Amino acid sequence: MKISVVTAVFNCCSTIRNAIESVAAQTHTNVEHILVDGMSTDGTSEIISNHRSRISHSVREPDSGIYDALNKGIRMATGDIIGFLHADDIYADRSALVRVDETFSSGNFDATYGDLTYVSSDDVGDIIRYWRSNPYRREKFRRGWMPPHPTVYIRKEIYEQYGGYRTDLGSAADYECLIRLFYRNRIHVGYIPKILVNMRVGGKSNATFRNRIKANNSDRKAWLVNGLRPPLGLRVTKPMSKLTQYIQRPSRS
Fold it and tell me: Using H for helix, E for strand and C for coil, what is the string for the chain?
């Protein structure tokens, strides 16, 4: 099964090499890595050029943000399955994509997801938070739950049928997409009980109180644009669902 990994990047010269090497190190034998550079000016494009032998396809052109870039990657992808590795992130180990392939092959799944760790930006071995996703149940969306987007893999045909990311919802674009695909259209979803991605800490949606309020409003809109009633107390239940990330620790087995 061919897996397309899309990396959208803009001015990430300090981390993009790690992301490229992480994809190249995967033991899954049929991986397509697509780089979408939104006209970086900090040396990122030179690093991409120096690693062109490890990259299947790359494009360097202006975009209107990360979700516009991810949509470009989806359109470029030729794999059966599409996932994303952000420019600041790396896979937890070399077998992450093997697990993705095995899960899709083990059942009639349209999508899968796994666990994620937030790690220090200076030391990816320093775990700050652990996002244990737990097995999939559709109704959990109404309690503020969602799977960690960097661990989500979806069949290309699902994107072709239901569309990609809306670029008018800001940081809630991935939340809206998952509500549309997982909740509204009830695609068949599998869970991988392993850490797939190490994600460096940071994120614009949580950077300031104003941004958090804006993200909350966009979360509500994500339900409304799908003709769905937003869950009662979403402003509270969605952040509350993340509290366990600060007290759980991954198994060393």
Answer: CCEEEEEEECCCCCCHHHHHHHHHCCCCCCEEEEEEECCCCCCHHHHHHHCHHHCCEEEECCCCCHHHHHHHHHHHCCCCEEEECCCCEEECCCCHHHHHHHHHHHCCCCEEEEEEEEECCCCCCCEEEEECCCCCCHHHHHHCCCCCHHHCEEEHHHHHHHCCCCCCCHHHHHHHHHHHHHHHCCCCEEEEEEEEEEEECCCHHHCCHHHHHHHHHHHHHHHHCCCCCCCCCHHHHHHHCCHHHHCCCCCCC
Q: For domain 3-246, which CATH number applies: 3.30.470.20, 3.30.70.660, 3.20.20.450, 3.90.550.10?
A: 3.90.550.10
In the chain, where the domains are located: 3-246
- Per-residue pLDDT tens for 191-248? 999 999 999 986 444 444 455 555 678 899 999 999 999 998 877 777 777 777 777 7
Could you read off the pLDDT of 26-56 as tens digits, one per residue?
999 999 999 999 999 999 999 999 999 999 9
Which pLDDT score, from 0 to 100, does residue 74 have? 98
Task: Confirm whether pTM is higher than 0.70.
Answer: yes
**Phi/psi at 89 (nearest 5 deg)?**
-110, 165
pLDDT tens digit string along 100-124? 999 999 988 999 999 999 999 889 8
